[in-house]
Structures are given as structure tokens and as C-alpha cells.
Amino acid sequence: MRISRHAILALVLTLAGAGLFTRLGVWQLRRLAERRAFNAHLDARLAATPSPVASLPADSAAGHYRRVTAVGTWDFERQVVLTARSRSGSPGVHVLTPLRLSRGATVMVNRGWVYSADAKTIDLTRWRERGDTATVTGYAETWWGSDTSTVPGGARAVRSLDSSAVAARVGAAILPYYVVQTSDSANSSTRPVRLGEPVLDDGSHRSYAIQWFSFALIAVVGGSLLVRQALHAPDGRG
């Protein structure tokens, strides 16, 4: 029996498609394993005994998500808001407050979320927690993004966590990390909603892997039908 060109083409396309989809599925499973290993590493950091934030290494990757403490004096006059931060579907901002440490360094503390109708402006004087000195417990986060623009309606706002933009608005050098505060406050009426621990999950890699393997199966079944049809076509008989 002579195999037609249509049958050969259908077979080649079937094998190529199934092979590609299978490789993509395996790639997603590999990414899932890498993410789980990374999450386990970060989870161990979050469970460790807190260390002073100023003692973290300069390498941001080495300090990311480490449990830290910071003792100092709040500088409420130089607070900055991070705009467009939603919570449970409500618009708001994050409040970033400078904390001046005993050795003169300044660390920014993300004290949490505050409702804002336009997601960019709030009355910062309302969110001054009781007492000028504080002991903050939380985890270290790295700066991200680039913000060279100004936010309409307020010079003390940024659109992304760009350390240069934040430092310019604070008017002082800041540490290469900022602290996400998870410790509570005695005066809940004047504190933002704490952000809590970061969510370390598997992401979508498993579902993507299942999706690609399903495509591979569909390619095999569909391709087999095409090959069979081509073999039984009039020009495919010997």
C-alpha cells in the first residue's frame, strides 16, 4: 500500500504537536518543582528568629523574606503612599513610614493598607500610631519597579516601589530593604491594616502542565483520525 502525502503530513504534524505539547508540560512540572523548592527556602526564612534589619547582607536576594526587627523613631512627617493597592476589591494605598534607627540609618516600613476612594490620596495625619518610638517586627522585602513620574494630587505618593523615588520623597538615604510590618499595634483605630505573611503557593504550573498534556493527548487522538482518514482516501490506496 502506497502512503499518500496527506497521510505522511498528518503523521508528521501529529508527532510534532504531541512532542511540543509534552515538552511544554514537562517544563511546567519542572518549574513547579523549582517553585516549591524556592518557597520552602523562603518559608524557612520566615520561620527563623528575627534579626535586626540593619544586619542584613547588602545582597538583596540573601535578605529577601528574612524575619527582621527594627527599633527606632517614626518620622511621620515624611511618610509616602504607594498608590493603587486593592484589598478585598476595595481601592486603597499602602503607607510607607520612615523609621530612623539608633545608628542614624533610615528604613522604610510598610505599615499596611488604608482605604482610599481614588486609590492615591489619604489624610496621612490620621494614620499616626501612638508614640514616636517603635519596635517593628516583620519581614524584609526588596525594592522593585521604576517610578520617574509624579502622581497627580500628591508629591508624597509613588506608583511603584522604586527606592530612588521613595528616597527622593523622604529626603534621605534609605536601606536597600524595606520592612513589611506584621506586628500588631495597641491602638488599632490609627493603624493601617497589616499585610500579613506573603502567600507562598504553587502558582498555576500544575494546571498549565495538565493543560499541555491534554493538548498532547488531543493531538494524538485527532492526528490518528487524520492519518486513518488519509490512508483510506482514494489516493492513499496501493
Describe this structure in words.
By secondary structure, this protein is an alpha/beta fold. The protein has four helices and eight strands. The chain has helices at 5-47, 60-63, 163-170, 205-231; strands spanning 51-52, 67-74, 80-82, 92-101, 106-115, 133-142, 157-158, 177-181. α1 runs antiparallel to α4.
- Number of helices, counting only DSSP H or I runs of 4 residues or more: 4
Q: Stretches where pLDDT falls below 50 for ≥5 residues?
A: none
Tell me the Rg in angstroms.
Answer: 27 Å
Estimate the helix proportion, in percent.
25-40%
- Give the class from helix and strand content and strand pairing: alpha/beta
Strand adjacency order, main sheet: 2-4-5-8-6
Please give the largest β-sheet. Answer: 5 strands, mixed, barrel
Quote the distance from N terminus to C terminus.
4 Å
Roughly what is the average pLDDT, rounded to an integer? 83
* Shape label: elongated
Total beta strands: 8
Percent in strands:
15-25%
- Helix-strand sequence: HEHEEEEEEHEH
